[in-house]
Amino acid sequence: MGDPKFPRRSFDAPSHPWRGERIKAETETCKLYGLKSKRELWKAQATLRKLRTQSKNLQARIRTDDPQAELESELMLNKMGRMGLLPMDGSTLDDVLGLTPEAILNRRLQTMVQRKGLATTLKQARQFIVHGHVTIDGRKVTIPGYLVKRAEEDKIVFNPHSPIANELHPLRGGSNPVAPAATSEPAPREVKNPKEEKVGKKIKNIEGEDEGSDDLPEREEE
Q1: Is 54 helix (H, G, I), strand (E, B) or coil?
Q2: Residues of the chain with pLDDT under 50
Q3: N or C: which end of the chain has fewer CB within 10 A?
Q4: Coil, helix or strand for 111?
Q5: SS3 for 107?
Q6: Dihedral angle over CA of 90, 110, 148, 6, nearest 10
Q7: What are phi and psi of 75, to 5 degrees?
């Protein structure tokens, strides 16, 4: 098991790190789902890999007429139905083998928040979650990669103690801040740089002297 202070990684990095096609595909997937790094994609792939391995083992045990395998397969399919990865009824172990990593990524809290309209972008949804502005069934969740269960989809709301819970908050999608009410008070005078004001006054004084010099009475000749 190892030291509990140093847990094992929950994902496996690619065996060959310099495959151009794989790097391009992973980059596009990370942009599509707003992932912080490729590690989050590798975690989803590791989760799907475990489910596929479990499904294959159960299928092999069912062929040997193992009654325990029948019970475990039923429990597994019910669990995946509650997770939203498969339909609640009519699913089989072969359906597990047909899943893709996108099926796991679609159940992430970050993706659900953006698709429910609580955030305009995936980056904003991640920020809301990390800062504690999102709750699930009254419980604050600050993990963007949390896998939302089927029964929790309609319980994703803003934290009532968060300022973003106000519908008039400027960060809410489709909402505009309230415009200030019109008043009869005069508009405030524009504040300028003191040096510019001094230069402007000098220019006005010089112009005034030039204009006023024409109005001076001519000196009579003796």
Answers
A1: helix
A2: 174-192, 210-222
A3: C
A4: helix
A5: coil
A6: 120
A7: -65, -40
Residue bearing tokens 């112009």? 207
Tens of pLDDT, residues 94-153: 999 999 999 999 999 999 999 999 999 999 999 999 999 999 999 999 999 999 999 999
Q: What span, in angstroms and rounded, lies between the C-alpha atoms of 90 and 74?
A: 11
| CATH number corresponding to 109-165 | 3.10.290.10
Taking alpha carbons only, the member of 31, 161, 35, 163 closest to residue 110 is 35
Q: Which residues pair with 27 in a beta bridge?
A: none
Determine how many CB atoms are found less than 10 A away from the CB of residue 17: 8
In the chain, what are the domain boundaries? 20-105, 109-165
Please give the Cα distance from 46 to 57 (Å, whole number): 17
N- to C-terminal Cα separation, the chain: 119
Compute the chain's Rg from CA coordinates. Answer: 33
E strand residue ranges, 63-214: 134-136, 139-140, 156-158
pTM of the model: 0.71
pLDDT at position 153 is 94
